[in-house]
Amino acid sequence: MMKIIAFVGMPASGKSEASRIAAEMDIPVIIMGDVIRKEVLKRGLEPNDSNTGMVATDLRKCEGMDAVARRCVSQIRETGSELVVVDGVRGIAEVECFRQEFGKGFILISIYAPLEVRFSRVQKRGRSDDMNSIDGLRQRDERELSWGMGEAIEASNVEIENSFTLETFRKDVNDVLNNYLKSNSEK
What InterPro entries does the annotation carry? Predict the structure, then answer.
């Protein structure tokens, strides 16, 4: 059975870092945000937080709250891998989409970090769609919560706290991923 491990969490909680760890373990990674960023560019827009948020909201409004997840399903299947990581679930409709597609093979891991910690990370990472103030991060949180992010986080199978050192977080993510790798290889 194919296993999908998806990361959910508020912006800058550590989803991308967790996905990097998975990639280092040779687990294919599908980044849901890339679907949005691709659509932003397709529409000829500047890839900033405002446009990214607008396009993400528009896709969900026009195609349904699971629009991004549905666009990722074929990418997941095309990997041909028994274990795939999905970075960036944003709402409960996406969780439901993946659970419908992959059944018990879908595992949702929430990553938690406090607002102040997340904002300090945003300031360091320098992505074009990042916000430049803590109020901007709060607004992004509110936008993503409006997509059902809170319900998605509550629906997670496992939570990893990312409030400590990078080394601690990497170890925690490694432990969780290795647990699923091990259970996958035993079948």
Answer: NTP_hydrolase-rel, P-loop_NTPase
